């Protein structure tokens, strides 16, 4: 019962595991603060559908221009850091390391710190001090624990990080203000915890303070994410491969930016024009859920732009790093094979982080317990919010039920109908091209899409978006649909036990 955190077979062999995520640090908090201007007027404009040629150009131009104006300072800082890295880069294999070094590496790390701090101040104003405080606290603990009790850095640092998040959210910071920095706080926490566990396993020595701070405040990932491992950050200071041309770099950023803006345009303008409030409740639920998903894709593609602009690459092919840094894969979510596939592709870096630092660590306790702890960790890092916790734990239960149920059906009928796509050399009698197998997989795909609609419908554009949704809001939304998704999942689980 490997479940979803034992996959990535198609990526790890290509070096994906040195690249690098459920939801990405709740970066939709950005939309909560800056998307309200778009949504406030939509209800009035779309009570009756306005002419397409009037509504979409005005909505689209306003949305896209405000976004570009808001984001361009971050892009400028990312470019500045990239130029600094190029002045410092050394040989990848370590030979003749001093040749071609224009500025000391410490200066490059400090540039990462300064550009990251400036970006945090632009986006969060004085709230960025909570990020700096956690960084300093975590590094101090890392040094002390590594000196006094080596091997416990991960446990101690992660525990204190979680306590810091809970304390800030409950006692120190106003809810609305905390919601603004929650995403950045989550990405920072993931970086800190990953370094602590890597130090324990010997994969990484204790970094110096400017290296640690440069990694945590890396300007390309500090605002919108995603989480990247320390090894990938450190690779920014190595000599560029000849295969990584500037044209490919520009092309990657251009396409990611276009996709990001399209997802924002679809989420804020198109969906609310296509599906009005008086439509059937399941259509409205699908609209709200897809609007939320596309706002997530907007942030995901935008984070690809900022990370790539600083020099982040993705997979490695024939020894050369490729400009294919990926965060989410919308096609696997909008047309899913299963919920397991959705969990994997919703946020690739965070999925890898959860798999590496939570699931594998907890796996000796049993697969089901490890899965629950994984979703619990994701929920805590996202913040103490009933809605997020309810969605994450529901998704975890749904995914587990789907995985074991489809696995049992695949064994009984010897068919390629498991939650994860079978390998070409699988031993099933009925392969993926068989009509019955295709039909069965389509049924499960439709069920997964219905579950996604049900789970995502409460992520609407109401006033509660700025402070986080309450338990009453979540239960009311699900109650409007009769809790049907939970009943279906429970019925599936019972049926799985009986067969």
UniProtKB/TrEMBL annotation:
State the reactions this protein catalyses: [Wnt protein]-L-serine + (9Z)-hexadecenoyl-CoA = [Wnt protein]-O-(9Z)-hexadecenoyl-L-serine + CoA
Membrane topology of this protein: Multi-pass membrane protein
> Where does this one sit in the cell?
Membrane
Q: Name one Pfam family in it.
A: MBOAT
Which residue spans traverse the membrane? 63-83, 127-146, 152-173, 250-276, 388-405, 436-458, 478-498
Instruction: State the UniProt keywords alphabetically.
Output: Acyltransferase, Membrane, Transferase, Transmembrane, Transmembrane helix, Wnt signaling pathway
Report the protein name in the record: Protein-serine O-palmitoleoyltransferase porcupine
Native organism: Lingula anatina (Brachiopod)
Q: What is the lineage of its organism?
A: Eukaryota, Metazoa, Spiralia, Lophotrochozoa, Brachiopoda
């Amino acid at each position: 019962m490997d479940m979803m955190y034992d996959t990535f077979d198609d990526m790890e062999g290509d070096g994906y595991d040195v690249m690098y995520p459920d939801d990405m640090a709740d970066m939709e908090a950005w939309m909560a603060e800056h998307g309200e201007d778009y949504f406030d007027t939509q209800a009035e404009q779309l009570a009756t559908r306005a002419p397409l040629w009037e509504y979409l150009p005005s909505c689209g131009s306003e949305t896209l221009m405000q976004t570009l104006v808001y984001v361009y300072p971050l892009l400028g800082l990312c470019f500045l850091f990239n130029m600094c890295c190029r002045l410092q880069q050394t040989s990848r294999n370590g030979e003749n390391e001093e040749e071609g070094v224009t500025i000391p590496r410490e200066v490059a790390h400090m540039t990462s710190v300064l550009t990251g701090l400036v970006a945090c101040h632009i986006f969060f104003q004085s709230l960025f001090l909570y990020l700096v405080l956690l960084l300093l606290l975590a590094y101090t603990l890392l040094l002390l624990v590594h000196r006094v009790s080596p091997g416990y850095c991960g446990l101690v640092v992660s525990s204190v990080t979680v306590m810091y998040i809970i304390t800030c959210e409950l006692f120190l910071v106003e809810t609305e203000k905390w919601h603004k920095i929650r995403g950045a706080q989550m990405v920072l926490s993931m970086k800190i915890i990953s370094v602590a566990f890597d130090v324990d396993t010997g994969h990484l020595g204790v970094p110096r303070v400017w290296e640690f701070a440069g990694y945590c405040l890396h300007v390309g990932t500090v605002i919108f994410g995603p989480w990247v491992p320390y090894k990938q950050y450190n690779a920014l200071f190595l000599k560029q491969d000849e295969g990584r041309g500037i044209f490919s770099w520009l092309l990657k950023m251009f396409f990611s930016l276009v996709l990001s803006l399209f997802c924002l345009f679809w989420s804020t303008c198109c969906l609310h024009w296509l599906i009005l409030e008086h439509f059937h409740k399941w259509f409205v639920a699908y609209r709200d859920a897809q609007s939320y998903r596309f706002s997530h894709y907007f942030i995901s593609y935008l984070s690809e732009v900022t990370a790539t602009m600083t020099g982040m690459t993705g997979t490695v092919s024939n020894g050369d790093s490729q400009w294919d840094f990926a965060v989410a894969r919308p096609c696997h979510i909008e047309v899913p094979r299963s919920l397991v596939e959705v969990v994997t592709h919703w946020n690739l870096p965070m999925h890898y982080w959860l798999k590496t630092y939570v699931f594998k660590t907890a796996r000796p306790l049993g697969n089901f317990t490890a899965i629950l702890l994984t979703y619990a960790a994701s929920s805590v890092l996202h913040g103490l919010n009933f809605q997020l916790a309810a969605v994450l734990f529901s998704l975890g239960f749904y995914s587990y039920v789907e995985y074991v149920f489809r696995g049992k059906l695949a064994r009984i009928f010897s068919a390629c109908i498991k939650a994860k796509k079978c390998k070409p050399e699988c031993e099933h009698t009925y392969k993926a091209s068989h009509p019955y197998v295709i039909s069965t997989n389509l049924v499960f795909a439709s069920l997964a899409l219905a579950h996604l609609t049900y789970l995502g419908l409460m992520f609407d554009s109401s006033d509660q978006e700025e402070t986080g949704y309450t338990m009453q809001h979540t239960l009311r939304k699900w109650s409007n649909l009769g809790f049907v998704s939970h009943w279906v999942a429970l019925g599936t689980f019972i049926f799985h036990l009986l067969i």
